[in-house]
Each structure stands twice: as C-alpha cells, then as structure tokens.
Amino acid sequence: MSTGRPPVLDVDALLDDPATRIVVCCGSGGVGKTTTAAALALRAAERGRHTVVITVDPARRLAQSLGLTELDNTPRPVAGVADGGGSLHAMMLDMKRTFDETVVANADPERAAQILDNPFYQSLSSSFSGTQEYMAMEKLGQLRRSEEWDLIVVDTPPSRSALDFLDAPKRLGRFLDGRLVRFLGAPARNGAFRLLGAGVGLVTGVITKILGTQLLRDVQSFVGMFDAVFGGFQERADQTYRVLQAEGTAFVVVAVPEHDALREASYFVDRLRAERMPLAGLVLNRTQRVLAPELSAERGAAAAEALEASGEHPLAAAALRLHAERVRLRDRERRLWERFTAAHPEVGVVEVPALAEDVHDLDALREIGRVLGDPGPVS
Fold first, then answer.
1. What pLDDT is recorded for position 376?
2. Fold entry, domain 11-176+241-293+337-373
3. Taking the model in full, what pTM does it have?
4. Where are the domains of the chain?
5. Which stretches of the chain are DSSP H helices?
6. What is the pLDDT of residues 99-121, one digit of tens each?
C-alpha cells in the first residue's frame, strides 16, 4: 500500500481569504454536498465573512437546522450564528421562480407577461432536464452582481452525473436554439411553412397528430416571443461561466469513499482543469475512524475468537469484532481514495468522519465545519 500522503486542503485559509468570493460544492448525488456547503457557510460566517448559501433540495433536518422551513428564493438571515463579525443568509433555490425572474429581466413587461402565461414555457421552466442546474447558475449570477455578500457558497443540484452541473447551461441553450424548436416555431415567425409547399405541410400534419394542435400552437407562440429574449439568456449564462473561471471562485469537490463517487470526483477534477476553473480540493465525507489504529483487523479478530472460545468477557469480544470490521472497512476506503490521490497527487484532501446521526442543528454543522477547518492529517 502506498505510504504517500496527499496535501491537506486548508479550508480555513480558503474561507478567510477576502479574495475568495464564491465557493462551489460539487460532486455526484448523495455524497453530502448540501451539508458540506452549509457547514462551510456557517464556519465562514462565524469567522467574520458576510455569507450567503444557496441550498438545493436540502433534507428536512438540515433545512430546519438552517431555519429554511419558511424560506424561498430570497436569502434570509439564519438565527443562532455565533457573533464573529460576520453574518449568514440562506435560501432554497426555486427553479421556476428564478426562470421567471430571468424572463422579466430580459423582456419588456408585455412580452414577459406573454411568455410567463404560455403553457409550453410553464412546462419548460418547471421540468426540463438541466433547468435546475441552469437556474442555480442564474441565481449565483444574481447574487454576485448584487454585491450584498462577500462570500457566496453554492450547493449544486443533485445529478446523476457530477458533470451535469457544467453542461446544463449549454444544453438548455442548445435546446432553445435547436432545429426542432425552430422548425416548430417557424410559422409563428414568418409563415415559412406556407411558402415551402405541401411536403412541409405533410410533416407538420404528422407533428400536429403527435403533439396535438394546442401544444403545437403553444410551442410556436413561445418560440416567437422568446426570440427577443434568448440572447439575454445566452449572455447571462456566458457571464456566469466566466465568473466561475475567474480568480476568487473555488470549486470544492465532495465525495464519499466509494468507487462510483470517487470515479465521478476524478472525472470532475479533469473537467475543471479542461474548463480552466479553479479547484480548491476534495472533501472526503463519511470516512471510518478507528480508536486503536495500531491494532490490525487480524489481531482484533483473533483476540475476539480467543475470548469467545473461553466464554469470558463477551462484551470485550464483541468490541474486538466490531473493531476488526471497522479496520477492514477503513482499509478498503483507503485503497479507494489512494487511487484518486495517485491520479491527482496535487489535489488537497480533507477528511470528514462519518457521524453517528444525521445533521439536525447548527451545533452539528458547526462540528463538521470544525473538522473541515482543523482536520489533522488524512489517515
């Protein structure tokens, strides 16, 4: 087994640096991105930063710990933050409301009202694949332009793949400017179908049977109205993308010591490099810690077996069995993350041990933040 150690991610130095304006927590689904984002934001606030955290679909207990039960798309103050000269605001992303705000910002009032009332737009803004990721970036852009906070922490949306987060703005843009949508919308813009003859008329007849007359009209109406604001969408997406590449932004990749999660983390590190986006390091969540690391699994199991054979000290035997199981799990985890560090030896890592129970209050978040800020060497 390799004895090399990855560099330690210095979280406190990252949060304390006034040049750090945006921290983006990213990774595959189910690895603790939301908890990590909330813990980083709380620690930054209690160390003097004026911080806002954007959470996406937080677990109920975590939402309650931040006071999010009544929150919406508007950042609101979090109570109970220790007075270190900073402050903490939090919000839950409302995907549709953010989309609506973007339409209003890029269209005159009459056209905006027409778009917002369009049934095809309402479906698109609520459920189209990639819209949540796109709108998380739109909300980030809005908060950054407001200059109300000196640190923004972003919890990226849960995705099947960690790469969806970077791809979503381009994917939504390709859809809105795609051939099918433009084809369906052509009659609303210039009556082109009437000029192209019976062949195209036959095609639209088939599409009408599939989609229905009303839906086709809704799509045509939407495309006709959206043409005037589409450029604004693209420009804002490009601006936010450049912000993500700029000095002052830091990506924190979050993973757990499992094969799929670390594979996604490795892909994401490579992608960030390819996109020239600044990577701070890796948070390795839910790792196993053992109280007596010098006692191997084999010796622990052998001692447990001897005690069981003698019939004495059953509790001690059970404890030794549990220790042996944890050591085996720790060794398996170490082998997995050492593959990651072998591929990315320059990436700083901070390890967060598995908790005995779910995060449900600020104290638990504060403890995670303490471990992130003062982790000791990676085991």
1. 57
2. Rossmann fold (3.40.50)
3. 0.82
4. 11-176+241-293+337-373
5. 11-16, 33-46, 60-65, 95-106, 109-117, 119-127, 131-146, 164-176, 179-190, 192-196, 198-211, 213-245, 259-274, 297-310, 314-343, 362-373
6. 898 888 888 899 899 889 988 88
